[in-house]
Structures are given as structure tokens and as C-alpha cells.
Amino acid sequence: MLEQIVQFLVTGITVGSTYALVGLGFALIYNASDVVNFAQGEFVMLGAMIAIALLSAGWPLPLAAVAATLLTVLAGLLLERFAVEPTLGAPVVSTIIITIGAAIFLRGIALLLWGKGFHSMSPFSGDAPLHLGGATLLPQSLWVLGLTVLLVGLVHLFFNRTLLGKALLACSFNRAAAQLVGINVRVMLRLAYGLSAGLGALAGILIAPITFSSYDAGIMLGLKGFSAAIVGGIGNPMGAVAGGLLLGILESLSAGLISSGYKDAIAFLFVLLVLFFQPTGLFGHKITERV
Amino acid sequence: MRLAGFYTLAIIAGLLPVLFPNNYFITVVGIAAGLNVILAVGLNLLIGYAGQISLGHAAFFGIGAYTSAILTTRYAFPPLLALGMGLISTGLISWLLARPILRLHSHYLAMATLGFGIIIHVIMVQATYWTGGPDGLAGIPPLTLLGWAVDSDQRWYSLIMMVMLLSIGLSLNLVDSRFGRALRALRGSEFAARMMGVDTARAKTQVFVISALFAAVAGSLFAHQQGFVSPDSFNLSTSIDLVIMVVLGGMASTFGAAFGAIALTLLHQGLVVFEDYEMLVHGGLLIAVMIFLPQGLFSGLSQGARRGWTLVRRK
């Protein structure tokens, strides 16, 4: 029993890491533009699908991963330039519809390019399981965990130690004030979309060997990432990471101990309960609305 | 003006089957469009007038449909009673959910309603004993109203058009009442509305339940008309389509929501021709409308038409 639970925890943390990365992307974009980007999951899908396509064209893995990430970043920048920038300051409902439109559009492109089938990627370094106590661990899980820790650390450093990161944070606190001290808000906006698309793509590439990928794989991943960001308190990057891990663990435990069919329902029930008792997420700032 | 629009719609709905008798397109697409209008007009009260987003409205549509389906097929309820029970169950669930969920704002509210929609969808798929699981439930009997069996496409068309007009009329009256003014005040600023003596929590609960009831009626009608329900009709993309209808038509306008519902129904029908390109076109159109006609198709186009009309008259 205990071994099983350890196993579920390991699986949960692996899956949760991807949620964390997707949630981090949500938080980045929300901070820079007050927009919840419903196309975030599609970045994850694009990263995985492009990498798989390049691998099957004979590219070596590191090159394919870098190229897939860069192409997804390009998609993120295009999205920002042609869909988000023209509608800056629009009501929340409108921005939600626009990013949903963008998500459908990206899914449409993926459908045309790669069809409806499932695609898989072979693990980065073999699939001989490692035994750790009573639990088995796939080498790919180590890749996911290691790179997530690295990426989260880099994002943390970026926000706290670099001028660019601090400028981005300043935009999220008060865009007008940031502009007044000479920060180019438009550039910051593009930076946020680029970064978050890149993070999404990397998450997609990391998880691709564990789960299959298809043109609509981004929907659920995007929703879980959004949940992670919301549970953590939207706009709080490290909160999103914590939220992602929490969701992943909860999901894997409920799939293992209760029912795998209901795991998504349980995950969202958890999100609802968190919101009912803590309307701005677990680690969110209390909103003081100016009247 | 409001009544003019209402009568125009009634005349169009009445004339279409006379002008094109036995036309598959009118009856089948008309039924789908009519149901979508009921749903969108109801959701518009919540999103458009009260300013509260819901990304899980398909859940209420589904609860209405499944209540009708389960009660008629498993417990041999008469269809009309099943429809009534659908209203009661949806009303109860939405009322229980309203208070805690409507304390949330903007993106948090979007997340919570979305989560609720997904939970209901998962239950539809998983609770196989009740819902028939992914395969759905078949053999739902058609409605019978005072001995008049609604069993042909033409009859369904007439019934759904009548309910559609009724719901539009109801919505027009609601938004012009004291309650409607409270909703609009609430959208402008919840704080200010409260200062003016509007019981905002109560108003939000009421509008949430009312819009859920619109969806439940549409759901029950849908179940009896199709004779079959499955979870696919009530998933996240249905919820999103409903929001798109409201926004596409132009928020806070009953006719706008109706127009958006008809436009999106026709668009889906039209895009079937494009097959693989459907998603691409659908997504692209959404972005384009939001960028170029942020007020929505209905007010965007009607303003354009008005401008054109004054130009013509000046000549």
C-alpha cells in the first residue's frame, strides 16, 4: 500500500511538473497583460508535435527540441502581435474569446499538418525503469523533474535578479507607472508571450514521451495549467508552480485510489473548493478593487 | 423598436416554412438555431446584462436534457412532467451553486464555471448506470402537449419557434424591469449598485438561476426532439460556443444574442463543407470579429446599415 502511494506520488509529481510549467506560462502572460491566454495548452501541443515531426525527419533530439521551442515562440509572438495587441484593454470576456479563437486556429493548423492521429516520441534516454525504494521511475520522469526545477529556477532568477525581469514585474503591478519610468510596455508584452510560449513548448517536448500527443492534446493540458495558475493565485508564478504540483499529485492519487475515470472531476472539484473558501487562490494577493 | 424586432423575428420564423415547404434545411437547421437562440438569450442575461462570465453553461443544458432522458426512459415519466422535473433539478443545482460561485470575479469565475461544466460532463460519461456513459441514452419519447404529439420535424419547428419567441419576449421584459436595471447597475459597478440599495448577491443568484432555467428548457426540448442524448452534446466546446454566440451577437442585447446564435449555427452548418479547414476558419473568424467588430456582429452590422441608410436618404 505504502509502495503504491509512493508510486502515485512519483507519477503525480511528474505530471504536476508539466502543469506547473503550463501554469507558469499563464502567470507570465497574465502578469504582463491581464489576459488569461486560453491558447497556452496549444503551445504545449505545438512544441511536442513540431519536435516529433522534426525527429521523424531525422533531426537529432537536441536540435529538434531547440527548433520546436523557437518555432513555438514565434507562434506566441505572432499571437501577441496579431490577436492580443489590437485588443489591449478589451473586457475580460472579449480577451477570453480571442485567445480561445487563437487556440482553435492553432489546433486547426495542427490538424492540417499532422492529421487526427496520435503521435509518440521515444524517451530521451531509454525506457529501462529505475527502482527507487518500492517505486519504479522512468528515466523520462527524471528528465521532466530535472528540467522543470531548472526552468522554474531560471524564471525565479529572471524575475528577482535581472533588470528585464523586474521591468516585466513592474508592468504587472502598474502598467502606466511602468511606462512612466521608461519601460517599453509593448516589448515587455512580447517578451511575456515569447517566454510563455517557450515554456509551454518545452513542457510539451518533455511530456511527449510519457503521453501521446495529438492535435487536440493541448485542451486538457491548457485547462490543467489554468487550474494550476488559479489555485496558486493568478499572477503569482511560484504559486502556479505549487498549484501545478498539487493538482498533479491529487490527480494521480485519486486515479490510483478512487477512480481513474473521475480523476479530472476530482481535480476540478478541488479547484472549486479552493475557490469557494479562498476566492483568490491559495497564494494569491487579496484583491482590493478601486471603485 | 423592441416590439418591432420581436414581430419581425416572429414573422420570419412563421414565413420560412410557408415559403420553403418541406425544406430539410429550414426544419432541421431551424430547430438547432431555435434551441441555440433560447440558450444564448438566457446566457446573455448572465454575461451580457449582469456581466458575470460562465464557461460551463452547457452543464445546465445537459442537466435539463439528461433529467428528461433518464426520467422518461427509465421511470416512464410522461415527457411534459419530465421537462418540469428538468426545470426543478436545474433550478435547484444552479441555486445551490450560485452563491459560492458568484462571489468570484472575472478569471476566477471563469475557472469555477469551467470546472463545474467539466465535472458535470465527467459524471455524464462515467455514471454509466444512470446516463448510459459515453454511448448516451436512446429511445426518449417525443413531447405530447394536450394530446398534440410533437412527432414531426414541422411540428418540432413550430414548437421550438414558439418557445424561442417566448424566451425572447421574456428576456426583453426582464431587462426592462426593475430587476433588469439592477443587473445593469451591477455590471457597471457592483460596489456602486450596492451603494444604491441593490441586493447584488440576490440579483446575481436570481439571474444565474434564470439563465440556467432557459438552458434547462432548451435541454429538455433537445432530448425529446432528438430522442437521444450523449455527453458529446454538453462538453466544454458547447459551453464555449454559447459564450461565442453571446459575444458574437453583441453583449447586452437580446436580439444580438439571438442573432449570434443563428449566425453561429449557420456558420457550423456552412463550415462542414470545408471539413479539414473548419477549425482554421472558425478560429480565424472569431479573432477577426473580436478585433474588427468588438461590439459584436449585430450592433456592428446594424450601425453600418443605419449609416448606409442615412447616406442613401441624403442623396
**Helix count, DSSP H or I runs of 4 or more residues of chain A:** 11
Low-confidence stretches of chain A: none
Order of helices and strands of chain B: HHHHHHEEEHHHHEHHHH
- String of helices and strands of chain A: HHHHEEHHHHHHH
Describe it:
- With 291 residues, chain A is an all-alpha fold.
- Chain A has a domain of 196 residues.
- Chain A is built from eleven helices and two strands; from the N terminus they run H-H-H-H-E-E-H-H-H-H-H-H-H.
- In chain A, strands 1-2 form a two-stranded antiparallel sheet.
- Chain A is globular.
- Chain A starts with a helix and ends in a 14-residue tail after the last helix.
- Chain B is mostly helical and 315 residues long.
- Chain B has a single domain, classed as ABC transporter involved in vitamin B12 uptake, BtuC (Orthogonal Bundle).
- In chain B, 77% of the residues lie in helices and 3% in strands.
- Chain B is built from 14 helices and four strands.
- A two-stranded antiparallel sheet of chain B has the order 1-4. A two-stranded antiparallel ribbon of chain B has the order 2-3.
- In chain B, strand 2 and strand 3 form a beta hairpin.
- In chain B, helix 1 packs antiparallel against helix 7 and helix 2 runs antiparallel to helix 10.
- The radius of gyration of chain B is 20 Å and the shape is globular.
- Chain B starts with a helix and ends with a helix.
- At the A-B interface, helix 4, helix 9 and helix 11 of A face helix 5, helix 11 and helix 13 of B.
Could you provide a short overview of the structure?
The complex is a heterodimer of chains A (291) and B (315). Chain A is an all-alpha fold and 291 residues long.
